[in-house]
Structures
1.
Amino acid sequence: MYDPDNIFAKILRGEIPCKKVYEDDHVLAFDDVNPQAPVHVLVIPKGAYVSLDDFAAKASDGEIAALFRAAGKIARDLGAAEKGYRILANTGADGGQEVPHFHIHIFAGRPLGRMVARPE
Ligand code: 5GP
């Protein structure tokens, strides 16, 4: 069940400010408030989807295409495509998802190390 009071829903409604880096009919992207790399951007669909699981099942082909085209364009426009970057979509409890509105993280600007940290 989608929670319309989650923080990204509030950002989409303009109730909470964000540092916008990209917007189109289906997608909003903005800087993460607690960046984990020199570039750390969140790319979100404007539609009300909880997670990648929800988005993949219910979003239109147009929404899905828009999100991935936007993510690639944003990374390129930020100058990250040449040296490389990482996208990440934490999904659900084991995935470490904190905000229940589907989002893709883009990290760039430094070598990003191992793909997944192993708990000790
Ligand atoms: P998750 O763990 O759900 O994949 O990532 C949620 C991300 O949202 C975190 O990286 C966190 O720093 C970011 N975040 C949480 N609240 C806000 C906010 O109010 N504004 C922005 N720009 N980012 C936020």
Note: Helices lie at 7-12, 52-58, 61-77, 92-95.
2.
Amino acid sequence: MKRITVWTEYHNDAKESEKYATQIYGKGGYGELIKAYPEGMGFALADIFKGDKDCTVTVTSVYEKNDGLSEELLSNTDVLIYWAHLMHDKVQDETVERIVRHVNTGMGVILLHSAHHSKLFKRLCGTTCDLTWREAGEYERIWTAAPYHPIAAGVENGFVIPHEEMYGEPFDIPEPETTVFLGWFEGGEVFRSGVTYTRGYGKVFYFQPGHETFPVYKQKEIIRILRNAVNWALPAAHRTETGCPNRKEFLKR
Ligand code: ZN
């Protein structure tokens, strides 16, 4: 059974989400977002796995206790999917450390779109993760740079996302283990839009598409990529056996 946790900065209740968004954006809040994802971002992402008998999906948000990710929930998560934009600072440092500890022992993590600037991604990368951007709703073409990679399986090379926020190079990340996808934007910029890392025993995938005002996560190619990414990021069977078995003995001395 794959245990997926979807973590976003949207309250599970769309109306509550709108209330918080209004506090940030002022009147109107996430009106456009609500149009693209009336069910809420967390549930829209969870829907990608709807009907999968071998999956359980938990939807949580930064508004809940422990920033929505308790030790217990993380212990019962195989792959964490994270979408975030404006509430990066709301996430406590200890929450980030808790997640990192689980990544190091094998939990997979998929960071989406503006999660590039989250505390978690910066912590995993050790760099600023800065990039250039422009919000103009341009089209983006996604090229497969690593066709042999499991995340690229069955994905059409060069498919188009009709409207997306432009993210461009330079992208201040460490050299990826694999650059699976490259994005090319209507305005001419290019971006390493799908990159992988390993941290400890855990697999990390950052995927750029998914600006909240466009229904990107309803597009079939994107759905395919995210499903592939979950299967790729599943922990190895030895997740709970990490760490030096002699450590306790050494500490006793
Ligand atoms: Zn965005």
Note: The radius of gyration is 18 Å.
